[in-house]
Amino acid sequence: MDEMAVPASGRTRIFSGVKPTGHLTLGNYLGAVRGWVEEDQHRADALFCVVDLHALTVEHDPARVRRLTRQAATLLLASGLDPEVCTVFVQSRVDEHARLSYLMECTASDGEMRRMIQYKEKTAREQARGGSVRLSLLTYPALMAADILAYGAHEVPVGEDQAQHVELTRDLAIRFNQRYGATFVVPKATLPKVAARVMDLQEPTSKMGKSHDRTAGIVYLLDEPEVVRKKVMRAVTDGGSEVVYDRAERPGLANLLDVLAACTGGDPERLAGAYDSYGALKKDVAEAVVETLRPVRERHAALAAEPAYVDEVLGRGAERARGMARPRVDAAYRAMGLLA
Ligand code: AQP
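Above: inputs. Below: predicted complex with adenosine-5'-tetraphosphate.
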């Protein structure tokens, strides 16, 4: 492996991101952000990014994307990412992502892009809305591969829905290295033990996704406590009255138990045994979620009042990220035959 494979510090490098396609959800928090805050930033040389270029792959309102980008960055800091410990930045401010994305498009095949589940699902969703499907929706996993590979990341902490894209990134890194010489670290996805896929409270067979149209089953990080309670108390549970943990047969109930376990540090199966009614379970889930989100909401309110501080953090983060990505992306250009 070349000398760029390991960061100068010799530590593991971690990269992950969040798309400003909507307000951040409980799924984003439990599936990804909380692990970045509590573990990843402390144990590795870590970069966390608001991947705004990815928000342009579907119909978008420029002013809304701008607003959501700032809000997402503020929420990452409010959740506890410490800019003195890790690098927090906005993707579009670092040109290396787009530069490397093109090389990834020249490494991937049309067939492997079309096999991506998210492409199939989002294409169906866009068509149902009567919208056209942007070419970037097909090619976005190439950009995601670039996001990860530019930094020589060893690990990519994500929710389950992104595991397929990280798998593709691995394939592209291996293929590139074999064809053009060792350039990229081959990364792996790391998933949380519980809540790797938080489901929509109204449609427990679908992922809770921040860009989805129906919002009754989505808990947003900035929802007022009363709104959180209402959404949880109205969650769809399955037929029957016994509280058991069965993801296949009782997905609504299993989802509530997963959320409770993630918020309280318990085990979903064991927690099931502690309840004899859905009502009591929902009440405890609602309170656990409210308490988990309370400090995030409070810190967000304080940080939102200090936009200059957030700007300064993002400016510093982008500069640091650029410095880390540039040598590897230049090397990839040269390896592929360009006069970089
Ligand atoms: N429901 C979820 N459960 C667990 N993890 C989740 N993640 C997203 N949803 C869940 C993880 O959060 C990180 C950032 O997600 P994202 O911004 O890439 O995707 P999203 O929130 O799902 O946004 P969209 O626009 O609504 O996307 P789709 O089209 O997927 O529904 C990732 O690590 C993700 O795994």
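Residues 307-335 form the longest helix (29 residues).
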